[in-house]
Amino acid sequence: MRGTTALSEGLSGSTCRPRHVLLSGCSGGGKSTLLAELARQGSATVPEPGRRIVAEELLGSGSALPWVDLAAFAARALDMAAEDRQKATSARTWTFFDRGLIDAAVALQHATGAPVAETLAAFPRYHRRVFLTPPWPEIFTRDRERRQDLDEAVAEYDRLLSAINALGYHVTVLPRTSVEERVRFILERLGEP
User: Fold this and answer.
1) In a 10 Å sphere around its CB, with 0-12 CB exposed, 13-18 middle and 19+ buried, how is residue 177 labelled?
2) Residues whose CB is less than 8 angstroms from the CB of residue 162 and which lie 6 or more positions away in sequence, other chains included
């Protein structure tokens, strides 16, 4: 992994960034829409590393795509998520991450067998509550950047749920409801009005 060691050394001074909130879960479950609404309402947000990587790879050689080389894609996602954490230093506001280090580590484990806990050992933790979008077949779509089908997305969700629980986070599954209600649900559980 290109810069992960150097980045993790810069991040490891803190064991937790309590205002860094991870949004994870099923692909096609509404995370990007939710992130856009959180940003619209004034929260700091960080877009999904995977989508950014796929967009870049489709413009170039396309070698680090999840459907071409999952291990290379996951390693690159881990590096990008580490950079995102390093850049997002504000402690005054919530910062919401659309996927992040945990998602990348779970993908890396799926591709290579590298244990999630060992991959993440040098990185600070997110807020203790992680929000997951559940599988939602009615809104699931495939596109140029998301080529997995719903069954693959559900399998990924199951891996994420298991790993996040094993890491000791408090998992909160988001309701299948409007984006405005999801934002309200998240902020209430974070203790915001």
Assistant:
1) exposed
2) none
Answer whether 171's CB lies under 8 Å from 84's CB. Answer: no
Residue 45 · residue 98 · CB < 8 Å = yes
Going by C-alpha positions, the residue among 185, 178, 39, 159 that lies closest to residue 98 is 39
Closest CA to 118 of 128, 127, 130, 105: 105
> Which CATH number is 108's domain given?
3.40.50.300
- Residue pointed to by tokens 């997305």: 153
Of 34-48, 73-87, 88-102, the one with minimum mean pLDDT is 88-102
Checking if the pLDDT of 145 tops 80, the result is no
Cβ contact 3:79 at 8 Å: yes
DSSP-derived letter for residue 22 is: E
Number of domains in the chain: 1
